[in-house]
Fold this protein.
Amino acid sequence: MIYENKDQLKKACETIIEADGDDVRLIDEASFQSKLIDDLIYTVVFSPDAAVSDAACFLIRRGAAALGIFSASIQSLYEAMGRKEIGGFTVPAINLRGITYDVAQAVFRAAMKGKVGPVIFEIARSEIDYTLQRPREYTCAVLAAAVKAGWRGPVFLQGDHFQINAKKFAADADKETQTVKNLIWEGIEAGFYNIDIDTSTLVDLSRSTVSLQQETNYTLAAELTMMIRDLEPEGVTVSVGGEIGEVGGKNSTVEELQAFMDGYLEELKKRGDAFKGISKISVQTGTTHGGVPLADGTVAKVKIDFDVLEKLSETARSQYGLSGAVQHGASTLPDEAFDRFPATGTAEIHLATGFQNMIYDSKKFPADLRAKIYDHLKINMKNEWKEKDTEEQFIYKTRKKGFGPFKLDLWHLPAEIRGGICDELEKQFAFLFDKLRVNDTREVMDRYIQTVDVPQKAPAALK
């Protein structure tokens, strides 16, 4: 149900949750979790009334806090990894592109069954646009899912690839930089206390030395880090990630990592000794985002250079105190590859397209809706259809852009269909958690992560 006006919203809440100044009081926890939370998140996502949507968002975020569910930074856990106090596991960072509320519940269920601690929910700059999920909506969907699933404790929300577009930067550097700064501000306001800065698009391999090649990358990364430190809420140290090699490009080297970090730390030092830098570093080891589709629509096998990944992770920890290297574009790798990431000391792994593929390719996904989405892509994304691509390749590359235009259709699929798809996803999440060795890490997370209850202003509609 979607609440169409503030009076309808208030009436639905009056025996379950009530606004109390800039906070809320839970009257009936069971009803909040069983039914009201469903209606609140649908109102956030689909209400045409911005004031009602804002009110529902406030009730979700503060209602979750009342249950001990808080948006959190993973910084202190990564610092412990950098000191080599803990290790042996790789933190999964999961991008949710569609039916986010339902899929996030599947993540939490799998995590609770495996006693998993750190799991990151993330969304990239590009995904925000084509899935039509602004940070505020994404935060609400994930926190509402935590409430629904019965999760308690920290929830790690991350801005993934908050990326500088190289072409737009070349045309107007100030404008493109400000666009990313605005997105960082929006993300932190929404509770994204983990931000991956991606200025690696500005690496210039034509320059004479590795340091010069990385110069614009590390200089701008330092500038954006300082902005994050200015914006982060009191008591929260946002976990910031950097990147030295654009995913899909040439493999990264230890020399590039050192050139970036030395230049980056020097830039930070110019601004003051007390400021924390990045907690992890994204590298390129042979993958591409989404994988490489073959003519029949299947994905080409990828060979990751695990030796490079291990050397980069060890250098990041031993020389710079970082948690280690971050692997992107990994969800379409073969199952047997995943246990090698914790073995090589990889700090974090980003997983997205594989879950998207499971949704679209599920036998439970309605064939008529799939055909409708694909027809839409063939008409509206025709300019992205390369001459050499088969229809299967074109569909594989562009179907991620079906989640936004068909968001209402996907969220309104019958409960048994959404449930069936999410059961399949839950099994895959459980498999990956086992392979990445994050099962039984809940105690470790609780030991290192101290949640902070960041205050919010109640919207006018609830006063």
Observations:
- The chain has a mean pLDDT of 93.
